[in-house]
Specification:
Helices cover 23% and strands 41% of the residues. By secondary structure, it is α+β, with helices and mostly antiparallel strands. The chain has 3 helices and 9 strands. InterPro entries: Peptidase_S78_dom, Prohead_protease. Keywords: Hydrolase, Protease, Viral release from host cell. GO terms for molecular function: peptidase activity.
């Protein structure tokens, strides 16, 4: 089996503080992504128990580590991560700046599927994953959640509301 990637834009619970600390959800349970896959609660449990360190990469590029994840855990909502962007690394400085400006707003997981099955509608349910890395990315696969830099919450809320309005309008127009 090959390495796969799942993209997740993070909601307001994802923050950047002091320009270098990032925390939030890298994966959300029970939410189908744009590829139709859904991660099931508990999918990371075995991997996190047996895990070597989960890498923090830039855009899934193994040649561009940009920080370290100090905490990676499952809770009822999904896979929560907390780590530090390394500003001694050029890409780490760039990432901190891009996140702070709102130009980068997503996280994505790199993993190997250990167990999955199809539901009654043919969608893939991912029940066990071997987590390799969590990347900062430009284009997340779960569009309903976004990264917000600390102190930018009102603007992030406005942008999220606008995105929801555009999505609703797109759906209405697609039906006509």
């Amino acid at each position: 089996m090959s390495l796969e990637h799942k993209f997740c834009a993070l909601g307001t619970e994802v923050t950047v503080t002091d320009g270098t600390i990032i925390s939030g959800y890298a994966s959300l349970f029970g939410k189908p992504d744009q590829g139709g896959d859904t991660v099931v609660a508990g999918a990371y449990a075995t991997s996190l128990t047996n895990q070597r360190s989960v890498k923090m990469l830039w855009q899934h590029d193994p040649a561009q580590p940009i920080g370290v994840w100090d905490e990676v855990r499952e809770d009822a909502k999904g896979l929560w991560v907390k780590g530090r962007l390394l500003t001694d690394v050029a890409k780490g400085r760039e990432a901190a700046s891009l996140i702070g400006a709102g130009a980068i707003d997503g996280l994505s997981i790199g993993y190997r599927t250990v167990k999955s099955h199809k539901d009654d509608k043919g969608r893939r349910l991912l029940s066990e994953l071997e987590l390799w890395e969590v990347s900062l990315v430009t284009f997340p696969m779960l569009p309903d959640a976004r990264v917000a830099a600390k102190g930018d919450a009102p603007q992030a809320d406005l942008m999220r509301d606008l995105a929801a309005a555009f999505e609703t309008a797109r759906r209405v127009m697609a039906r006509d």
